[in-house]
Specification:
Length: 310
Amino acid sequence: MKKKAAVILSASILISANGMVTETFAATADPAVTTMAATSTTTTSPTTTTEPATSTTSGTTTTSTTAPTTGTTTPTTGTTTTTTGTTAPTTGTTTTTTGTTTAPTSTTSTTTTTTTTSTLLKVGSTGDAVMKLQTDLKQLGYFTYPTITNYYGTVTRDAVMAFQLDYGLAADGMAGTMTQTAIARAVLKQSLLADSKSYIGVPYLWGGTTTAGFDCSGFVYFMFNKFGVTMPRYTSASLYTQGTSVSKTMLRPGDLVFFSIAGNGKVDHVGFYLGNGEFISALSSKGIYIQKMENNSYWTPRYLGARRVY
C-alpha cells in the first residue's frame, strides 16, 4: 500500500529595520520526499523626501526647491536550490539608496587691474622708442648728434642726463617713466609757447577766456586747454597753489611765473615763462604781450615765484 506524501506550508513574516515587510512561504516535506521549495518576496520601499536647499546671496534669500528623490530599490530574487530531503529557502535582499542633495557652489569673480608703464630705455636699448626719445630731445636742444638713430648710446645717455639735471630729476642717464613723461610735457609746452605768440595784440578783457579778449589767468586757461591739458578756470592766486614750486634758477619754458602788481605781496598776475628771462601774459594796458622779467625796474621787484603745473 502506497503512502501519500504530506506537504505542510508554513508562513513567516519578517519586518526589517527600515520598515520593509518580507513575507516568506516555505514548504516542509517528509524527509523521504523530494520537494521543490518556492520563495516569494514582496518588497515595500519607503519614499525619502529631501528638504529644500536655501542659498543666500548679498542679503537676498532665494529658496530653491529640490524635487524629492525616491530611494532606488533593487530587489534580489531568492535562489531556490533543490536537494534531496532538505529545502534551503533564500530570502530576497532589498537595497535602498537615498538621493543626496548637493548645496550650490558660490563663484567669486576677481578683477585684476593691470598698470602699464613706459619701457626703461638705457645704453644698449634699440627700436622705435629710442628714435622717438632722440627726436624729442633734439627738438628741445639736448640731442646734438647729426642724425636720429635707433640705438641708445653714450650720446643719447648724455642728452638724457642733461635734461634730467635741468628739470630736477635724478640724473642717471636712463629714460624711465618720469623722465619720458617730463620730456613729452616739455615738447608739448614748447609747441604751446610758439602758438601763444600768435595771440600777441589780442586785447585785455577782465574775465576773458577767448580770442575776443583775455585776462592773465584766462589766457593760461585758454592755452593749456587748447593743447589738451584739461584745467579748471583758476584765478592767478589759485594757480599759485597748483603744481610744484620752481626756483628762479630752475625756470624752464612753460613754467608759470607770478607777480604782485599791487606790490602788496599778494598774487594778482600770471604769465608763461618763455626762457631767456622773458614771459608772455595778458596786460591790462597792452593785451597779450611779451615782457622782460629780469633787470626790469617794473617786473623784477614784483616777481613772487614760479610753479610747474604740467
